[in-house]
Amino acid sequence: MSEPFLPPLVRDLPADVVRARLPTPFPVGTVNCYLLVEPPVTVVDPGTLTRVSLERLRAMLAGAGCSLEDIEQVVVTHAHPDHFGAAAWVARRSGGIIVAGRAEVAALRGEQGGGLRSAMMAALGVPASLLKDVAAAWRATGVVEWADGVDIVPVDDGDLVHAGGRALRAHVTSGHAPGHLSLWCDQAKLLVSGDHLLARIVPLPGLEPSDTGTAHRNSLGEYLTSLPRFVALDPAVVLPGHGEAFTGVDVLARRLVAHHADRCAAVRSVVAELGNPTPFEVTQRLLWQADGSRLLRGVADVVGHLDLLAHDGDVVVEAKGSALRYRAAG
Questions:
Q1: What is the domain count for the chain?
Q2: Fewer CB in a 10 Å sphere around the end CB: N or C, the chain?
Q3: Which residues make Cβ contacts (< 8 Å) with residue 199, sequence separation at least 6?
Q4: 164 burial class (0-12, 13-18, 19+ CB within 10 angstroms)?
Q5: What pLDDT, on the 0 to 100 scale, is given for residue 139?
Q6: Pick from 12, 2, 62, 54: which is nearest to 33 by CA?
Q7: Are 245 and 10 in contact (CB under 8 A)?
Q8: Owning domain of residue 187
Q9: 56 vs 322: CA distance, rounded Å
Q10: Domain-embedded: residue 265
Q11: What angle (nearest 5°) sits at the alpha carbon of residue 286, between those of residues 257 and 300?
Q12: CATH number at residue 170
């Protein structure tokens, strides 16, 4: 009998957890927002600051006999706009706090580190004009309220977070985001995974400036290194940021490792074909739909796999002027 390649889905959520699928203006579609109804009443990832999303958020609360004023805290798994756009809006109206991984706090406040990010993108060969166009389009969506002036409680790996009548262990793991926060209840074998683990979507590695002297973080390597700890937890139910709840993290981890190995082979083939490309040039060759936002997501994916290839000695990275270029080894 062949081994399953997709983790099994879980249809029934715990009785004290309510889920709403909130619409977003992004290609990923809806985002899962969870209400943990026992004190302290907690909302996890309240979605974007759009009318239809806020209406569905209010409807979820009303269906559970709650209102905005009952919310004591907002947990943000990571500072991507589809997850945190309405967090400050909810916190200001409820008087509650925001809880997030420490490395996400600056982004929640709108402190983006623009100079470092621009230098990193230039090193990867991304044209400045593309960055300006994508930034302008993103600002036009108006989906985020920044959390300046809101009480944010930063969480570190291993901390306890009390939410929904449970004591939850924080798993702060980089990869998709520098300070991505997952929450684990050992008694119920329940994991709130945000975007770190998704049943049917491969999380995109983050593209973040490094604080260790290199141009960018080795986000994909960090992500893959984190997987064994979640396999060891062996959750009975995983509540993800997108899609259905699931179990079988061991199956998912094997699928992710296989996916990234295949992706590495594809990226190395393009590097060998182009000779000495920048990551941006590799991305242009790999993508079928090369609009601006998709290109930038593709650059993150390509850079992650180039980092894995460089670590294994399959490609060599060279600085050519201000840009990084790669060539196949051997």
A1: 1
A2: N
A3: 6, 7, 9, 238, 240, 243, 244, 245, 246, 252
A4: buried
A5: 67
A6: 54
A7: yes
A8: 9-247
A9: 47
A10: no
A11: 60
A12: 3.60.15.10
Show the 3-state SS of 49-67: CCHHHHHHHHHHHHHCCCC
Could you tell me if residue 75 is inside a domain? Answer: yes
Q: What's the pLDDT at 1? A: 41
Take residue 156 and report the two structure tokens written for it: 């570190």
Specify if 35 maps to a domain.
yes
CA–CA gap between residue 84 and residue 271 (Å, rounded): 36
Amino acid at site 238: V
- Pairwise CA distance, residues 147 & 105, whole Å: 9
Q: Quick one: which H or E segment has residue 309?
A: helix 292-311
For the whole model, what pTM was predicted? 0.94
Q: How far apart are CA 246 and CA 12, in angstroms?
A: 10
Mean pLDDT of each 10-residue bin along the chain, 330 residues long: 78 95 94 98 98 98 97 98 97 98 96 77 90 72 91 98 97 97 97 98 92 81 98 98 98 97 97 96 80 84 97 93 89
